[in-house]
Design a protein that fits this description.
Layout (H helix, E strand, L loop, with lengths): L1 E10 L9 E7 L11 E5 L2 E5 L15 E3 L2 H15 L4 E5 L10 H12 L4 E5 L17 E4 L10 H4 L2 H10 L2 E8 L1 H5 L2 H11 L5 E5 L4 H18 L2 E2 L3 H6 L6
Parallel strand pairs: 2-6, 6-7, 7-8, 8-9, 9-10, 10-11
Antiparallel strand pairs: 1-2, 1-5, 3-4
Helix pairs in contact: 1-2
The structure holds iron/sulfur cluster.
Iron/sulfur cluster (SF4) binds next to loops.
Length: 252
């Protein structure tokens, strides 16, 4: 059993496959909360801090999430969606942290079906969950967008960097890349040292950097610094197309 917060057809907005029409499954729940990312929201009159997908992270939103305990039913829904779309688009499995559910039998059945259908699957993951790729071989056919969190996430390093999880992903997956969300202040301070430390664990993966921002306004405040940072260090700049186009609208 796992939770979905939303599913929709859109365009991948970030990372290596930015611009590719993709069908999104967003799971509910995360093992981090990233209070440093600047999104604020209210729960029962209390102000909380989190990332741009706080509605898929904070369990106080769980009553609006959908419980999925029937893989066949979700697969039928996806088949109908693909018929409506007219082709089988790439799949993006995001969250929250989708790999919290990697060993769940319902979740794994859906992923295995997508792999059998030869559909490209990208996991948007924080890279902290260690996967047994021999036991769950379908994940070897997936792309892992490793959106590792840096100090600006507000999470302690011991929670956000798990070397054994990263080594397993680097060793077994067909394709992975590193993706960092950084802001103008971090560019001026620890960003390069933090990224280089992670690259000691995964030296061969391409690096994408994108500006912090849960809205157009916050992206505009950080994009130029990240752009110049990428030029300086030979990293790839990733924009956040869905926020540029739709601002804070969910489900796009
Ligand atoms: S790991 Fe990702 S989804 Fe989870 S709280 Fe941090 S930014 Fe949000």
């Amino acid at each position: 059993m796992f939770y979905l917060t939303e599913q929709f057809f859109s365009i991948q907005g970030e990372g290596k496959y930015a611009g590719v029409p993709s069908y999104f499954l967003r799971t509910g729940g995360c093992n981090l909360s990233c209070p440093g990312f600047g999104a604020t929201y209210e729960v029962d009159g209390e102000t909380r801090y989190g990332c741009d997908t706080y509605f898929a992270v904070d369990s106080s939103y769980a009553k609006s999430w959908t419980k999925v305990d029937d893989a066949a039913a979700l697969i039928e829904t996806l088949k109908k969606e693909f018929e409506t779309i007219g082709y089988k688009p790439d799949m993006v499995i995001t969250g929250g942290e989708p790999l919290m559910y990697h060993a769940d039998s319902t979740f794994y059945e859906v992923i295995s079906w997508l792999v059998e259908e030869d559909i490209q699957i990208t996991f948007e993951t924080n890279g902290t969950i260690e996967i047994d790729f021999d036991r769950y071989p379908a994940y070897q056919s997936c792309v892992f967008a490793l959106s590792l969190k840096l100090a600006n996430s507000g999470e302690p390093k011991s929670k956000r960097i798990v070397p054994q999880a990263l080594r397993a992903i680097g060793k077994y997956t067909k394709e992975s890349f590193l993706k960092f969300t950084i802001d103008a202040a971090l560019v001026e301070t620890t960003a390069i040292d933090e990224i280089n430390e992670i690259r000691e664990i995964l030296p061969d993966l391409p690096v994408y950097c994108m500006p912090v921002g849960e809205s157009r306004d916050t992206i505009w405040r950080n994009d130029k610094a990240v752009f110049e940072f990428c030029m300086k260090h030979n990293f790839r700049y990733s924009d956040r197309l869905h926020i540029r186009v739709f601002d804070t609208t969910q489900g796009v």
